Amino acid sequence: MRTAARAAAPQASGRDAFLARAFATDAADLDVSIDPARPVASTDALLTACLRDGSGHRPEVDTVRRWTVASRLDALAEIREASGASTEWVAFHCEAPGCAERFEAELNLGACRVKGMVATIEFAVAGDTMRARLPTGADQARWQQERMPLHLVAASLLDSGESADAAVIAALDAALAEADPARELQLDLVCPACAAPQRRVVNLEAQLLGTFAREQQTLLRQIVRLARAFHWAEAEIVRMPVWRRDFYLGRLDAEGLDEGAQ
Question: Global pTM?
Fold first, then answer.
């Protein structure tokens, strides 16, 4: 079953020089490695594959690593929207006692897009004002590779460079969540079966990476079927408009042809 959910619109900024195209529409997209265990590298691969500047040039990995995490997430959402999608459905199961209903919540991608220009934030700790920068893709990669403890992660973002105690970490985390609410979307849901209210947190980056991986697998399966049936080359099939691929696949279904016959 499906239910609607709201998410606050973020206020962070991004990479205005690049525009997105839809994923799984180019032969090069078949080479994009999307690995849930390597989200930074997966996002790098998608951004460099699907973004272009006004001259048609794609960004380098070093370029997209310098963008804030919020900007990178905004770019992923723009790539998803370029395919014609305006919403993203997220699967849940009810956690209320005695109920394990499976349902989906709808995210409005437009409400998850980055708006404004925010690269630094201010927050107060014990009456003192502190400043920090928003994390970048390079930060994410370094933290994951070095498995940095939380206090060092927080300290690396502070302008002062001073150590971060529990109070600073908590205040910084709250300020980052306010500046970039799409980082971890908090959804207030109601189970459609038992009506139990529940709050869930969605990792939008992981959600979008999963969607892109499924789109890639769908395209690969379509290529296998059409290549077997019509002996077309992979690149030929990928270049086809989606409506044409759907037509040929529909004819195979209608005529009862299996994957190995024409």
Answer: 0.85
Instruction: Give the Cα separation of 211 and 39 in Å (integer).
Output: 13
Residue 135 phi, psi dihedral angles, 5° rounding: -65, 150
Report long-range pairs for 85-92 (Cβ below 8 Å, ≥24 apart).
85/109, 86/110, 88/204, 88/207, 88/208, 88/211, 89/2, 90/187, 90/202, 90/207, 92/189, 92/200
Q: How far apart are CA 216 and CA 47, in angstroms?
A: 15
Return the number of other C-beta atoms located less than 10 Å from residue 54's C-beta.
8
The vertex-114 CA angle with 111 and 115, nearest 5°, equals: 95
Residue 40, token pair as written in the block: 């930074």
pLDDT tens digits, residue range 65-101?
Answer: 999 999 999 999 999 999 999 999 999 999 999 999 9
- Output DSSP code: residue 68: B
